[in-house]
Amino acid sequence: MKEWYCAKDKVKMEEVYDIALMYGDMELPEAEGLRCPVCGAQYIDEETVTGELASAEQMLEAK
């Protein structure tokens, strides 16, 4: 994964595997992403959002 830095704190973001996701009132499985060790800002990469999360959203909307 490419190195990313927090725009606010100017520190290297940490790769994490425990970003909590919610869809409405429903809790989704944790996702991989980046977190700032200083301010706690979290980011999920575009591939995860447009791929995995979009598929999950379509499935949930179909119910």
Q: Can you offer a commentary on this structure?
A:
The chain is an alpha+beta fold. Helices cover 27% and strands 35% of the residues. It has a 3-stranded antiparallel sheet, with no helix packed on it. Strand 1 and strand 2 form a beta hairpin. The longest helix has 17 residues. It is elongated, with a radius of gyration of 13 Å. 6% of the residues are buried. The mean pLDDT is 85.
Write down the secondary-structure element order: EEEH
User: What's the N-to-C terminus distance?
Assistant: 35 Å
| DSSP E strands, number | 3
Tell me the overall shape: elongated
Number of helices: 1
Taken together, the total number of domains comes to: 1
Q: Strand fraction band?
A: 25-35%
Structural class: alpha+beta
Largest sheet: 3 strands, antiparallel
Helix content: 25-40%
Rg: 13 Å
Give the uncertain stretches in residue-range form: none
Strand line-up across the major sheet: 1-2-3
Mean pLDDT: 85
Tags for this entry?
single chain, 63 residues, alpha+beta, 3-stranded antiparallel beta sheet, 1 helix, 3 strands, 27% helix
Question: What can be said about this structure in brief?
Answer:
With 63 residues, the protein is α+β, with helices and mostly antiparallel strands. It has one helix at 46-62; strands spanning 14-23, 26-35, 42-43. The longest helix is centred in the last third of the chain and has 17 residues, at 46-62.
